[in-house]
Amino acid sequence: MKLLGNHVRVAVLLSTAVVLGVTVSLDLIFSLIDELGESGVDYSVGNALLYVIMTTPTSIYELLPYAALGGALIGLGVLASNNELVVMQSAGIHKWRIVAAVLKPTLLVMLIGLVLGEFVSPPLEQVANSNKAIQQSGSTSINSEAGTWRKVGNDYIHINAIAPGGEELIGVSRYTLNDERELISASFAEASEYVRTGTGGYWRMLNVSHSLMNGSKIITGNYLQEDWEADLSPELLSVLLVDPDKQSISGLLQFAQYFDSEGLDSGVYFLAFWKKLLQPLATLVLVILAVSFVFGPLRESTMGYRIFIAMSIGLAFTTVQRMMEPVSLIYGFSPLMAVLTPILLCAGVGALLMRRVA
Question: What pTM was estimated for this model as a whole?
Fold first, then answer.
């Protein structure tokens, strides 16, 4: 049985590697085409290529569940087409032992996904997005296309670009409101650096243009530097460099809690948190669903048809997942349930098919 188990595992792993290689290659091509459309004087073709290369681990992470699905469906499909599964079962090997052999390489895929999603992809995304923002942004005005808006206490700030690590900012606009929601001051700093102290730290704004609203008068001034104490640490700012779906699990939880403390809507971050936390479970369920199809309705099908079914399952799973996300945010029900719904649907279909072929 050990030899047969190794045979099944190798077939599934090789198929998974081929599926992952093909899908990542296609994703790279389309990503590069998309980035080349943004290239210009400040953002060259070389910059675009470097950006795509640095964000490749994120693409691999996002495609791993579907690669595992396709690998299981195609790998087992090859064995079924060669009647090897029939021979195994005729020799007295129960189908659940074959399923267990398939799930072992799936566990490896899940582990690789966790490492990529938590430790490799987010830092590279931060550096890639930071470099891109710095290359595209200017330091003399608001760059709403490349920058980000955030609320800190009574301050609304816009940052053109955030350097890797979050300790240096480029192009910082700050608007301060009073308790009556009236604008009382506005300022723009060409750059800002974080100064750490024994009790925390503060932001040192450089080359500041400041406007103070005093009744019907506006008092303006220019300063070489100005200190700004705000509950906005570099660690939190570094999270802003990437979209929620591309952040680490720990970073998502930290920023969701920060949004709650500021009275802001944290649903997007909690939704991304549960999605990433439960991705291993989603991978496992998709593989079990693929196995149930091979033992069931796809036992005698052609390879082309199996590939079509794998693509259809992946598309259906993604569609339900993306439908549940905005529904959760709009109607306010649990982000956990929004993420679990497509997983439970796949698990139910897989369990039903496995029972029918028992």
Answer: 0.84
